[in-house]
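Replying to the earlier thread about multi-chain prediction with a worked example.

Input:
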Amino acid sequence: MASWGEASQSRLIGKRIARLSGKDKVTGKAKYTYDINRPGLLYARILRSEVAHANVLDIDMSRAEELPGVKAVLPIIEVGKKLRYQGQEIAAVAAETDDIAKDALRLIFVDLEELPFVVTKEDAMAEGAPQIRDWVGNKSNPGTDERGEVDKGFNEAAVTVEATYHTPVQTHVCLETHGHVAEWTDEQNLTVWASTQGVFGVRDDLAGRFGLPANQVRVITEHMGGGFGSKFGPGVEGHTAAQLAKITGQPVKLMLTRKAEHLVAGNRPSMTQHVKAGASRDGRLIAYDMKGYGTGGISSGAGFQAPYVYSVANRRTERFNVTINAGNQRAMRAPGHPQGAFAMDSLMDELAEKLGMNPLEFRRINDSNEIRQAQYTLGAQEIGWHRRNTIPGSGTGVKKRGMGVGSGLWGGGGGRGTQARVTINADGSVEAVTGTQDIGTGIRTAIAIIVAEEFGLTPTDIDVKVGDSGPGLRSGGSGGSQTTASVAPVIKTAAEAAIQKLFEHVAPLLQAPVDDLRVGNGTIYVASDRTKTVTWNQATGLLGMESISEGGNWDPELREKDVAGTQFAEVEVDTETGNVQVLKIVAVQDCGLAINRLTTESQINGGVIMGLGQTLLEERIMDPQTGRMLNANLEDYKVPGTFEIPEIKSIVFDTHRKVTGVGEPPCIPTLGAIANAVYNAIGVRIRELPITPDKVLTALAEKKA
Amino acid sequence: MSEKEKKQSKNISRRSFIKGVGTGTVAATVAPAILVGNEKTAEAQTDGAVDSAKIQLNINEQVYEVDVEARTTLLSVLRDGIDTAGDNVDLTGAKLICDRGECGGCTVLVDGKPVYACMMLAMDAQGQQITTVEGIADGNNLHPVQEAFIKHDALMCGFCTPGFIVSSVALLNENNKPTIAEIKEGLSGNTCRCGTYPFIFDAVETASQKM
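Result:
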């Protein structure tokens, strides 16, 4: 049976190893899509709607076309069609410089007939609200689910809680905006540098759009500056870049502006939940009834998890989607989970308080996940759970401290569909090639570690080639925390096959059977007689004019899915300013077999920080008067900065020797942990994110009154 | 230009420049023509000869001669500039992320001080020593800050990393034994979305011990 072997025998796997791309990234040599300069490069920009809803009556591009330096102007929306959200594409230009492209956009004149719009889900549901889609209402038909005996559960409940929880729309804020550089090498061959989480997805989409065989489109993503779920297909901007390059016969770079990134490049939908839940005297969650909705913008997709993580047999849920005139949602880091976790973990605390129970004990009773049970113990020790206020808000002084806990679960686990090749050359060099992409999570380094472990080499000896569809070795998009669990087993089996082949060449020289050969530290030796040894280069020298090149296969025995996580937060709330400062987060995250402990810790830190941003800072603010987003920049849309960063204790909770993914799970439990800590500090519960100073002060004032 | 004038022009940021040219233009700059619907306003910005000038910039101890317009930013020269010999400047380490002095992704040193290159006009950078992230290492020898960033994994996607490297070097040049609070303050002008901050703080601490 395939196995990653024992931890004690791993030389590299599970250790802290610096990422291979580090030097290029700290010296500025790493080239992202945004950095690609090509001979004759043109710069493209897109004219976007500034209104939320309008009929397009006329588009006059003639003045823009006449501007010196403009090479092409391309309409995107047709006259007679509707613009349905701010940021929607109208037309694009390609010009010799970016400044000329900007000027040219100002010379495109668009005649619009403005229409009534709605940009908040409450307005969209109000009586008499403008219906913004002709074929279906603003409110979708509800999806319902009922299990067990809900009414009986409530009748038997000793305590019940009814509450409404809200989370706002959050945007991805990829630092490298979405974009592409497109270049036609001839009429039938297109090369595209793309800031993407899926090079093969972009390749297949563009091939289909331009009627080309897939192998005549090459997509390259050497490095990319953040995606968080929003960067899969080429999108309108990718199609436009390729079309402009085709028209002009020159390479075209089209990167979104920061504003457009907020408006059209995806977001996490909002959520509102009205929930009622009941628990028995002995602390069992026995009834749950939830009505909820959210908006994902102009289309649908505002789903969330409810109930979440904890077991409740008797439950009824009803949820629907609300359409508004705003840019659409895309998958965002654990779609549906953080907002669901915030509501559920808040609810659990409210029930525990009514029962007079320690919220951690209440969770233990209702959590069937054994890994998380162990994590509760470890996390509580690390944070010093005994120090929390037994009576919420009972601390003295202006600045009050409190503690909270939250939980999460994520599938991960990977799947088939990755092809890889591991090659050993006669000069001793090693290549590992696959079509995945490194979106900052460190898969490039993980691949090197796995191959180096199998070959007795060091990770820097392995030349890893990813982020290029050119070699034709397909791999899936990097989403759902699937990359490592999809890629690692294939790389491992390919490396195992390659080293077996090398052993066959070495066996006659060492006069030993193949299955008695082992790799050492840059050597191959005979297990039963360790005096018999050759260096790596002596061994590969035997290949002469040949090289060894092996593929691998995805073995589900090598991976794990469904990873549990728990986080504890300690906060300090300034009751005069309303400011919440997170002091410490303990994140206990099931990581399966962490290939690289260092980059795994980085991912946990990153998840916690994104969760912190969602809890305390982030919100897309839409203006109901103008239909526009009021904070489509990095000043008014707040993401965590240095001052917000608490001490983070990221605990790689490696319970088993199977790989899994941790890109998403650590951003889930943070919300409930912080929100519950705020309650524990001040004794007033804030049920709407983000927990900003105004909400804290209002809540404190209401409590006093 | 007198010394005083020179000093003043150096201090003009892009934002104060926009503020200074009258509300009519501001409206056109902020809102596109589809809302303004005023051809004249657009014309005023784009028609007629565009003033440009040949300037020399000293970047990473190398002189670059480039043609720039009054509006050309230092960042635009670094990333997209073409020198008068026809070669790309191609110093793409400094990143364009927010394009308005909010994120620090384009931080460079100007006479040793950290500056947002998106907020400085290229013309104002004349006569000063500009150091980009490409000029931080001494040939193949990485700066202690760069070494420490790699060791501590103070980067994930790496897009904000050049800005953080330059800001960290500037911080340690001013204060070579910063406390954690001083590190947070020194790097507060830089934004990371992957959430690498804790390891950045560790890296700066490690680097400070080697400086």
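Chain A has a mean pLDDT of 97.

Feel free to reuse this layout for your own posts.
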